[in-house]
Amino acid sequence: MKLACQEGLLPGANFAEKVKNAEVLGFEGIELIGRGLADRKDEVKAAFANSPVKPSSICAGFRGCPLDANKAERDLAWNDIKALLRLSGELGTVGLIMVPIFGPPRIPDLTPFAPPTQLEKDLFVELLKDAAKVAAEAKTFILVEPLNRYETHLLRKLQHAVEICERVNHPNVVIMADFFHMHIEEEDTPAAIKAAGKWIQHVHLADNTRMQPGTGDTDFAAGFAALKKIKFDKYMALECGITGPDRADALKKCVRYLKKCIKG
């Protein structure tokens, strides 16, 4: 398992400084912000060129809504997603993190023919099958992310996302597990991780407070033990707030804490 950090959390006046600071702080990867990434691709490549720190993943960055009722809105989202997948492959990241929908359904309720959630899942599966072709060509993953009940109505547990991936049945469509969302939605986080197994290809880290790990009561050691059981060996990226006046010091302490939890 390798530790990564979202670029926005790292100290540094520019991206090159953030990469250098990531190495000093003990991170092995940086999760990139998807919005505007294509415009700074050369800068990002140059910063990583001679560094042991690598780009771990791309976090969203697409416009529109992948499951909007309006086809133009859906097309906007999926065209951006495909472009970001190609960029993911070019930069060598594990994949693109994507959430299918925030908030309530946007598709009409067609009960008794079908409720919105069924229509959304059926549509999501078909759209993922199409995008998976681009992911395969780019040699990267679509990382489907379940959220918590306060942010989405659709995919909230790891198993919800696994069910979608099983229906798509494509090796480039997998899931991302987020400790913050799991702390809210899963009855047993380690059990949920073990059940999701091979589908987990990326992880987000935040404590139950949504701040950096080690500041709340989430049992990361138990979660990491479960990840070891499923032979997870990829990146775990910080996606959280940072407490304290000294960001670099807080991140350094967080890395020490996480490495201790990984060792068990």
Question: Any overview of this molecule?
Answer:
45% of the residues are buried. The chain has 264 residues and is an alpha/beta fold. It has helices at 15-25, 41-48, 71-91, 116-138, 158-168, 179-185, 189-196, 220-229, 247-263; strands spanning 2-6, 29-33, 54-59, 95-98, 141-144, 173-178, 200-205, 235-238. The protein has one domain (2-263): Alpha-Beta Barrel (TIM Barrel).
Short description, anyone?
With 264 residues, the chain is α/β, with parallel strands linked by helices.
Mean pLDDT reading:
97
In total, the number of strands is: 8
Question: H/E order of the elements?
Answer: EHEHEHEHEHEHHEHEH
Which sequence of strands runs across the widest sheet? 1-2-3-4-5-6-7-8
Structural class: alpha/beta
User: Under CATH, the topology is which?
Assistant: TIM Barrel
CATH architectural group: Alpha-Beta Barrel
- Specify the oligomeric state: single chain
Percent of residues in beta strands: 15-25%
End-to-end Cα distance, whole Å, is 13 Å
Radius of gyration: 18 Å
Number of domains: 1
* Apparent shape: globular
Model regions low in confidence, pLDDT < 50 over at least 5 residues: none
Question: How do the helices and strands line up, and which of them pair or pack?
Answer:
Layout: E1 2-6, H1 15-25, E2 29-33, H2 41-48, E3 54-59, H3 71-91, E4 95-98, H4 116-138, E5 141-144, H5 158-168, E6 173-178, H6 179-185, H7 189-196, E7 200-205, H8 220-229, E8 235-238, H9 247-263
Parallel strand pairs: 1-2, 1-8, 2-3, 3-4, 4-5, 5-6, 6-7, 7-8
Helix pairs in contact: 1-2, 3-4, 4-5, 7-8, 8-9
